[in-house]
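Changelog note: in this version the structure field was regenerated for every chain. One regenerated record is shown below for reference.
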Amino acid sequence: MVDEPNKVDQVSVTSDGAYVLTIKDHWDWEVDFDHVQVLEDKLNAYLSFIEGGQMEELYPASVRLPLEIDIQFQFAPSELGLQFLDAAKKTIEEGGYKLTWNIATQADA
């Protein structure tokens, strides 16, 4: 969950071999500044997990394979949230990783 910064919510492998680290974000966006801060902390923790060697240690097959961080939102991000995501995507992709996100639909719930 997004409010557990020291825990990786989920790791999976796509059919083409990419490793995906998923963040499950169940917070609404009523207090969007706080939400952005919590999300930023979680993303930084994921990057530390990857760059600090824990990812390679726990998932040795992930070495030299594409890595993606995917955020699964329960609620659509606010305007501030989207601005943050766009900036985070750029920074993360400059580091050689991919950042994606999606919003749960009523059918997903």
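Spot check on this record: The longest helix spans residues 32-51. The longest strand covers residues 19-25.
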